[in-house]
């Protein structure tokens, strides 16, 4: 049982690191008009609604901490934002069905909008930059749409990995019964 738990943790860590590396290396070249998709938010939200609030928070904290180390002016800012995103998406675990892609797309879209709004509130508004509509139209909304487009490619891969891990956990659990 411990081996399967370790395997899930290892696979999750590899996914988070791979998403981080892709976001830092490949995605800047996919930038369109200064907007790039948020792969770390896709991973955090997906783990939240697929595995629950606890795992969503852990993945979100790890993702945010990596972003803090790379880009942040202070450690913990993005970690907190991603942790909250993972927790909120985890609240929808009971409503989540694998076959229905509409809920994951909606949750990731709303998460992206709230992420952008949170970044605006805590970084720009506190510096007396009151041009929210400009930021919404030029950054938040286009980034949310671009993130949804990338979600259509990334989410099925995350779902496939989750199915394989759950199938292995069920096989292991049936051996003990």
List its salient traits.
177 residues; mainly alpha; Arp2/3 complex 21 kDa subunit ARPC3; 6 helices; globular
What's the SSE blueprint?
Blueprint: H1 2-26, H2 39-51, H3 53-70, H4 77-90, H5 102-124, H6 132-176
Helix pairs in contact: 1-3, 2-3, 2-4, 2-5, 2-6, 3-4, 4-5, 5-6
Main location: membrane
Keywords: Cell membrane, Cell shape, Membrane, Transmembrane, Transmembrane helix
Organism: Ruminococcus turbiniformis
Characterize the structure shown.
The protein is an all-alpha fold. It has one domain (2-176): Arp2/3 complex 21 kDa subunit ARPC3 (Orthogonal Bundle). Helix content is 78%, strand content 0%. The protein has 6 helices and no strands. The longest helix has 45 residues, at 132-176. It is globular, with a radius of gyration of 17 Å. The two termini are 13 Å apart. The model has no long low-confidence stretch (mean pLDDT 90).
Strand/helix succession: HHHHHH
What number of structural domains do the residues give? 1
Estimate the helix proportion, in percent.
over 70%
Beta-sheet strand percentage? under 5%
The pLDDT mean sits at: 90
* CATH class assignment: Mainly Alpha
CATH architecture: Orthogonal Bundle
Uncertain residue segments:
none
Organism: Ruminococcus turbiniformis
Pfam family, one: MreD
Subcellular location: Cell membrane
Protein name: Rod shape-determining protein MreD
